[in-house]
Amino acid sequence: MSKDRMRRRSGRAALALLAVLSMTSPATGPALADKPDWAGGPGGGHGKPQGGPSYETRGHDSKGRASGGSVSRGEVTIIRDYFVAHPVGVTALPPGIAKKLARGQPLPPGIAKKVAPVELRQRVPVCMNGWECILAGADMLILDAVHGTIADIVRGVVR
Description:
The chain is built from 4 helices and 4 strands. The chain is an alpha+beta fold. A 4-stranded antiparallel β-sheet has the order 1-2-3-4, with no helix packed on it. Strand 2 and strand 3 form a beta hairpin. Mean pLDDT is 74; it is low at 43-68.
């Protein structure tokens, strides 16, 4: 082989090596990003209801109102005390429907719901003025009557 031919072959090999290295280099490779919030945490997050957390785990402002929600701490106490004094038969929701209960979402079709008792609705200010209070399983849902969505969920209060 001639020297000229060897130089061309080694030049091509060097270009090929440079091309391979540039594709695998971290500086020029694809950027790695964090998972978005909706993608779920460790373990995938599958099977968890979407939407905001329930009253018990959400932050509250200085007046005791749930941040972005509609039920205050005092109202939750009134609701819990009412159901301790006036137990109602609770039928558990099917797991598929229970997973669909989430703040900001419409009420799932086929849900077994009962309107909250009149006496309770008169004690809890949130159950008036455009809000609808219903019982679904062991939870009390506060519905935005105008938009037909779940505004807040007070979990595990119905006995």
